[in-house]
């Protein structure tokens, strides 16, 4: 089992202690919708298979200051019970600054962005808001696990 799946399970248990729950998984049809729209909105971007696997487990996350973006609500077949940050809409927001367009943003916290650096072909944690590199990762899985571990501290 991937490390991030174990960490999500810890978060799920923590949320249940407080009478809350995690978001429902995304259906294949909803993944297809966002994949089609990403090309129109963000260019020639391919979502990593591990991010898609994450979405099929939980449609984004908002826990202890960490937000991992999910499928935008307009591409979902049913309404969300809570506000969420959609992958496309949030990337468009960050792209207001020209230098940020080299990154594909998957999540953020109070102090960091979790991204894929398209120029360097590397997953990175950047300081928010300076954009200074904090750490780089070999894969989306490793970056996500690191972000979840930090949120669980």
Provide an overview of this structure.
The chain has five helices and six strands; from the N terminus they run H-H-H-E-E-H-E-E-E-E-H. It has helices spanning 3-17, 28-42, 49-57, 87-94, 140-152, and strands spanning 61-63, 66-68, 103-108, 112-117, 122-127, 133-137. Helix content is 39%, strand content 19%. The relative contact order is 0.16. The longest helix has 15 residues, at 3-17. It has a six-stranded antiparallel sheet. Helix 1 packs parallel to helix 5 (140-152). Strand 3 (103-108) and strand 4 (112-117) form a beta hairpin. By secondary structure, the chain is of the alpha+beta class. It is globular.
Helix and strand topology:
Elements: H1 3-17, H2 28-42, H3 49-57, E1 61-63, E2 66-68, H4 87-94, E3 103-108, E4 112-117, E5 122-127, E6 133-137, H5 140-152
Antiparallel strand pairs: 1-2, 2-3, 3-4, 4-5, 5-6
Helix pairs in contact: 1-5
């Amino acid at each position: 089992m991937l490390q991030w799946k174990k960490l999500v399970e810890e978060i799920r248990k923590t949320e249940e202690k407080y009478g809350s729950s995690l978001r429902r998984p995304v259906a294949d049809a909803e993944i297809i919708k966002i994949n089609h729209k990403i090309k129109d909105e963000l260019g020639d971007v391919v979502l990593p298979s591990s991010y898609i696997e994450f979405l099929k487990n939980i449609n984004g996350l908002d826990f202890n200051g960490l937000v991992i973006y999910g499928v935008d609500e307009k591409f979902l077949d049913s309404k969300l019970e809570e506000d969420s940050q959609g992958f496309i809409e949030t990337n468009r927001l960050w792209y207001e600054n020209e230098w940020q367009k080299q990154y594909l943003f998957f999540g953020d916290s109070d102090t960091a962005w979790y991204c894929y650096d398209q120029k360097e072909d590397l997953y990175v944690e950047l300081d928010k808001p300076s954009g200074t590199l904090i750490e780089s990762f070999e894969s989306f899985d490793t970056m996500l696990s690191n972000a979840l571990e930090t949120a669980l501290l």
